[in-house]
Amino acid sequence: MHPARSIVFFTTASGAGFGLLALLGLCAPLGFLPESGWFAFVALAAALALAVGGLGASVLHLGRPERAWWAFSQWRSSWLSREGVMSVLTFLPTAIFGIGWVFFGATRGFIGLCGFITAAFAAATVYCTGMIYASLKPIHQWHNKWVVPGYLALGLMSGLLVLDFLVRFWMRRATGLALITLAVIVIAWFIKERYWLFIDTTSAASTVASATALGSRGRVRMFEAPHTQENYLLKEMGYQIARKHSRRFRPLARISGFLFPALASLLATILGGAAGIVLTGLAMASAALGLLVERWLFFAEAKHTVTLYYGADAV
Length: 315
What we know:
Elements: H1 5-27, H2 37-60, H3 79-104, H4 109-134, H5 147-167, H6 175-201, H7 208-211, H8 232-237, H9 243-271, H10 273-300
Helix pairs in contact: 1-2, 1-4, 1-5, 1-10, 2-3, 2-5, 3-4, 4-5, 5-6, 5-10, 6-9, 9-10
């Protein structure tokens, strides 16, 4: 699939934003975060900037952005529509929770309940984002059991990295949060490796023979291409990434997206103080780069079944 930059940014930024919102809505009522109105303001502003920025980028991918509101009308059958609905619903309890926390320092009672609702709705939004792709049966690299857990784990990981960085401006040491961040990085990395192993060692059941219903006539191959030049299907759904690029970008995603953030988080846990702030900031920046590469690969390595009609041997 052709990896549009707007969609790469959208899925990465919104995952981090809603992941951070979920953490704030869950941890603040439980008393795990600094009791500071400024911390609440900065953390919520960062979460909303990432979430809204990501959602805004997704509109840029539409051919007619002014019709984006139509996406909300198909929530009964479309995961894209459900994602839009859930993202908007998330902002309603977030507004109440944010006003209570920032201006009144309240994180208990009704305000705390709104925080928990915010966390649940934010997690549901990320789940819907993953299901947009996991529900597409014609794309083997997306229609599998690793996609949705991967989206949830990466959203949680990126949200934790941002939260760990921000918390250290108010707390000299955040050992518990840092250890949780480190554990989630390892889990997210494991899920990503399992996903890559799955797409490298399996292919869709569809073949040229089954796609053309000529399977009973022996070996089937394309005699000639159906078009003499590139068309929309080939451009958007027949995008091919060179094997050398895959070999180059995957190590970059591993090192920048997982290995360096894990090591930096571990060192930040040991050192604390100003060194901890610097290390968690570097971990956050490195993960941002690595996850952008990972998400680009997620789209670039996907193969649509329609490419069987254009000469592909397997998808």
